[in-house]
């Protein structure tokens, strides 16, 4: 015996070691306990629409036999309240001890859930808590494996005392095929399913379904009356042409920002005719006769389905095109567009002299050669010359001799940076860093994406931009002001491109004024600051003395001072603007005169940031010293006897500290002293004062060189890449989109009363304002970072900005689709509602409020009850729509299928008799989907068993048939 036991060939199996299947079951048990699903809870009864709410999920991975499975817990949110109420009196199974899932499935509130967010299992069985086990690797098609998984779940539920139903998903995922079970102390339930591609003939009608249900639960005995709920779904596909207004004129198409979808946003309209509670003894539905007529349905509800492949909204495409343009190559956004040799610019023909010059005559001789003309035609740009002129005339209407043929800029009613809502209920302004509406930059920001979108490529937009930059250079060289740009220095509350054009306009104004003075004086001119009271004044750099009004004042002062013998002829004051009302010079007691100073150098936002970033290189400090030195020299020229203390009192009053306890000086002024920072050794102010000479502003070196500044702006414009140009225009285009959305929403009485579109438009406006206030992504960083690092950082930041505007594209598309959907629903269901309200109908009636609530719910893609059902105004319009569809499909004879317009005085139609109902029923095609829910409480599996709830859900349509049944049985008395 010992030899047999020690024989190594004998196999010893250790039955104390857990197998893979036992570990799989144990893992399920631990997960159930960790999720606390083994603690039974009694919940409040389901209410209508509860299953449409939000669902919470928990998922854990489980490995079994080399495969990965996922166990997911689904639970309806906010329904875990313990109920202390009595069971529903109308529930036939109220006095039967049941599982919570059986109570839920017997409630009619869980029938016919159509919300996509609701899981399919809840739609089939009407439950709110369940477990789902499925494979993450492959589809479970083996019946043996399906039974192993289901038995494993059943054992885990029994071991843990969990009363939540558990399901296993098998077959293909698109089939949504589930098998499950649920275990309780006294009852247990099996969840079974049938899924076929074609419906058996006897299951197409209610009689066959009743026979199938009875044969499953009766076991040879007559069951009690069966409660039935039926729903018929009729689908109407939108085939009517969609009305959209696309302007053909260029000026109209750009000024009126395109809005709306190219096709009807609604692809299908579902009419749901429902009988929520019937008895099998009261209704007949067979192949020969049916009581289930849509006009006799207890409830009518509707649901819309949006088109998935419809033409995209035009407004969002405008912004999307600009975002797409940013991905073009980073080279300068300029194409090689040969110019007509007759004139250097497309607008030169309007301003050229009538007397031809020799060069122009020579050009005509050259271009008269046919071979040259043919070569020029072959080199024509991406846009034909006729279209190009229309574009340039729209951008620059001042070049047209006949103003009636163009759209002028709305001077002077520019409101900078305000995105105002015309709504009377909400007058909130959204500060947007953009350009004034209908300004030059505004038109350019709409024109370029339109050209890019129409050509689907770069050349069209690049050609327009090339002509724009050439026109900017031409206007600078000829000193022609740029239209459509706000006057004044660069406004940092606007976008960078508008600031650059403002800078260029300032340079043009300086150039014109300097040239006009040069004609009269024969010398160059400089500008002096009028401190905002008058226009800029320019004076000759005449070394012999002052000129103009300043010269006359100086002469009078010279005469007075010479008469008094106070000052010599070579020590006369110059460049005085006005006498200070209170201050006097500390040394002599003479009045302190405010000097004429040079203008501050205008700078755009990127230049200011450049100086800030380069402050550590002392460049900004040097500029500050230059400006202070210029003001000191002007002050000394106006006040020859002044000291540094006098200059500080006027220029920087905070650095002059008055002594309150000291007596007044001899001139009656409060005594004081310089601040502590002004008394420091080697102070910048003291050094500058010591080297400053009494030179008036008119003879100083200019701080602002308009030529250099203009060439810098032109170089910036010509060197922009597609990405830089898109970043410069995106704020303006987004501003235009948000403005158009607000206009569309608040101009329509119906849209203003709907809760969705106004809220979405206001949210979009806030997001656009926040996006345009983001820091500049094109600011030069080369003075702070190495060239390579600065370029990489700027490129990364620019791409992040483009992503921000791409998210705005989705918002604009959602709002635009919502607005178009609301208008489409009004035209179909209640035409005339809030379209032309008279004074007598100004007050909103109850029926109109009901219609607004109805359309608002439809916009949320929910199932909505039709006010008045089949007899209401909407029901009449829907019936007419189906009749028109039937006539088009079957080529029926003409009939009166017109739909009456909405009238607040008659919101409903008179009830029709039986003959009218049958006639109207002929307007409906066969139902696309037929759904039936049957439920009963009967003893099972035998007559001696306790009464147990039974439920089956049947769905039949053209290419699918499904049965989903829950069959409970007594676990004690078989």
Principal-axis shape equals elongated
Task: Please tally the helical runs, counting DSSP H or I stretches of 4 or more residues.
Answer: 28
Low-pLDDT windows of residues: 83-90, 246-251, 338-347, 349-379, 423-430, 523-565, 777-785, 892-898, 904-919
Mean pLDDT reading: 78
The largest β sheet comes out as: 13 strands, mixed
What class would the helix/strand composition place it in? alpha+beta
Order of strands across the widest beta sheet? 1-2-3-4-5-6-21-20-19-7-8-9-18
Distance between the termini: 51 Å
> Which percent range describes the beta-strand content?
15-25%
Indicate the percent of residues in helices: 25-40%
Radius of gyration: 42 Å
* Total strand segments: 21
Main location: cytoplasm
Protein name: Rab3 GTPase-activating protein catalytic subunit
GO cellular component, one term: endoplasmic reticulum
Domain Rab3GAP catalytic subunit C-terminal: 803-973
Structural features, described:
This protein has 974 residues and is of the alpha+beta class. Among the domains are: 314-512 and 709-754, no CATH class; 537-596 and 603-703, no CATH class; 844-913, no CATH class. Helices cover 39% and strands 16% of the residues. It has a 13-stranded mixed β-sheet. The longest helix is centred in the C-terminal third of the chain and has 43 residues, at 787-829. About 14% of the residues have low confidence. Residues 803-973 form the Rab3GAP catalytic subunit C-terminal domain. This is Rab3 GTPase-activating protein catalytic subunit. Residues 563-576 have a biased composition (Basic and acidic residues). It comes from Thrips palmi (Melon thrips).
């Amino acid at each position: 015996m010992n030899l047999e036991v020690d024989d190594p060939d004998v196999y010893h199996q250790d039955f104390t070691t857990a197998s893979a299947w036992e570990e799989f079951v144990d893992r399920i048990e631990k997960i159930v306990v960790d999720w606390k699903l083994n603690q039974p809870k009694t919940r409040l009864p389901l209410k209508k629409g509860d299953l449409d709410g939000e669902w919470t999920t928990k998922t854990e991975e489980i490995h079994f036999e080399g495969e990965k499975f996922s166990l997911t817990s689904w639970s309806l949110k906010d329904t875990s309240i313990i109920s202390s109420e009595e069971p529903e009196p109308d529930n036939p199974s109220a006095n039967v001890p049941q599982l919570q899932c059986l109570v839920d499935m017997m409630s009619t509130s869980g029938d016919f859930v159509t919300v996509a967010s609701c899981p399919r299992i809840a739609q089939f069985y009407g439950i709110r808590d369940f477990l789902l086990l499925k494979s993450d690797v492959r589809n479970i098609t083996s019946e043996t494996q399906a039974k192993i998984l289901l038995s494993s779940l059943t054992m885990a539920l029994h071991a843990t005392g969990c009363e939540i139903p558990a399901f296993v998903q098998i077959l293909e995922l698109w089939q949504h095929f589930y098998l499950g079970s649920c275990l309780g102390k006294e009852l247990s339930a099996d969840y079974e399913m049938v899924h076929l591609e074609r419906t058996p003939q006897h299951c197409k009608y209610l009689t066959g379904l009743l026979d199938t249900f009875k044969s499953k639960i009766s076991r040879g005995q007559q069951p009690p009356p069966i409660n039935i709920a039926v729903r018929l779904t009729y689908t109407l596909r939108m085939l009517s042409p969609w009305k959209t207004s696309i302007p053909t004129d260029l000026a109209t198409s750009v000024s009126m920002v395109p809005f709306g979808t190219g096709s009807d946003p609604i692809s299908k309209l579902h009419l749901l005719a429902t009988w929520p509670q019937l008895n099998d003894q009261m209704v007949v539905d067979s192949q020969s006769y049916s009581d289930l007529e849509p006009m006799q349905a207890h409830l009518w509800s509707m649901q819309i389905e949006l088109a998935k492949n419809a033409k995209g909204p035009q407004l969002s495409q405008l912004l999307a095109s600009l975002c797409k343009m940013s991905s073009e190559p980073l080279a300068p956004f300029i194409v090689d567009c040969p110019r007509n040799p007759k004139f250097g610019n497309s607008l030169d023909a309007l301003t050229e002299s009538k007397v031809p010059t020799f060069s122009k005559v020579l050009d005509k001789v050259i271009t008269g050669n046919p071979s040259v003309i043919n070569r020029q035609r072959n080199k024509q740009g991406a846009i034909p010359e006729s279209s190009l002129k229309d574009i340039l005339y729209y951008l620059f209407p001042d070049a047209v001799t006949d103003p009636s043929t163009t759209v002028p800029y709305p001077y002077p009613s520019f409101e900078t940076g305000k995105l105002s809502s015309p709504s009377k209920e909400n007058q909130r302004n959204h500060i947007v860093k953009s350009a004034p509406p209908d300004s030059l930059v505004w038109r350019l920001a709409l024109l370029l994406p339109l050209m890019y979108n129409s050509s689907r490529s770069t050349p069209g937009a690049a050609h327009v931009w090339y002509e724009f930059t050439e026109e900017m250079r031409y206007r600078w060289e000829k000193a022609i002001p740029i239209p459509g740009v706000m006057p004044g220095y660069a406004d940092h509350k606007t976008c960078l491109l508008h600031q650059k054009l403002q800078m260029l306009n300032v340079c043009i104004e300086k150039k014109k004024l300097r040239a006009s003075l040069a004609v009269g004086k024969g010398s160059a001119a400089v500008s002096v600051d009028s401190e905002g009271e008058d226009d800029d004044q320019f004076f000759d750099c005449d070394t012999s003395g002052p000129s103009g009004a300043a010269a006359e004042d100086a002469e009078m002062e010279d005469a007075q001072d010479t008469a008094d013998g106070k000052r010599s002829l070579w020590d006369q004051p110059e460049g005085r603007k006005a006498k200070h009302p209170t201050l006097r010079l500390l040394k002599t007691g003479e009045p302190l005169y405010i000097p004429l100073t040079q203008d501050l150098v205008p700078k755009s936002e990127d230049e200011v940031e450049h100086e800030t970033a380069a402050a550590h290189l002392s460049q900004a400090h040097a500029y500050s010293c230059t400006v202070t030195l210029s003001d000191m020299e002007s002050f000394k020229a106006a006040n020859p006897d002044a000291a540094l203390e006098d200059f500080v009192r006027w220029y920087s009053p905070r650095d002059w500290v008055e002594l309150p306890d000291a007596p007044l000086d001899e001139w009656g002024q409060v005594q004081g002293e310089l601040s502590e920072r002004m008394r420091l050794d080697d102070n910048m102010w003291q050094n500058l004062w010591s080297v400053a000479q009494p030179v008036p502003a008119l003879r100083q070196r200019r701080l602002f060189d308009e030529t250099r500044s203009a060439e810098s702006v032109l170089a910036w414009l010509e060197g922009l890449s597609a990405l830089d140009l898109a970043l410069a225009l995106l704020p303006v285009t987004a501003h235009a989109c948000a403005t158009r959305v607000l206009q569309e929403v608040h101009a329509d009485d119906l849209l203003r009363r709907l809760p969705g579109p106004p809220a979405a438009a206001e949210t979009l406006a806030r997001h656009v304002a926040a996006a345009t206030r983001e820091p500049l992504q094109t600011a030069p960083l080369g003075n702070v970072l190495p060239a390579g690092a600065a370029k990489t950082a700027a490129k990364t930041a620019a791409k992040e900005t483009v992503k921000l505007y791409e998210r705005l594209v989705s918002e604009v598309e959602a709002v635009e689709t919502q607005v178009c959907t609301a208008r489409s629903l009004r035209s179909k269901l209640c035409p005339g509602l809030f379209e032309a309200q008279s004074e007598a109908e100004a007050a909103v009636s109850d029926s109109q409020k009901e219609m607004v609530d109805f359309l608002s719910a439809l916009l949320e893609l929910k199932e909505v009850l039709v006010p008045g059902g089949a007899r209401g105004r909407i029901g009449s319009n829907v019936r007419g729509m189906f009749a028109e569809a039937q006539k088009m499909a079957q080529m029926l004879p003409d009939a009166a299928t017109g739909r009456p317009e909405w009238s607040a005085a008659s919101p409903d139609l008179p009830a029709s008799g039986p003959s009218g109902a049958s006639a109207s029923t002929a307007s409906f095609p066969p139902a696309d989907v037929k759904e039936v829910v049957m439920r009963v409480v009967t003893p099972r599996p035998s007559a001696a068993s306790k009464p147990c709830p039974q439920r089956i859900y049947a769905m039949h349509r053209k290419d699918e048939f499904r049965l989903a049944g829950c069959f409970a049985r007594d676990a004690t008395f078989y």
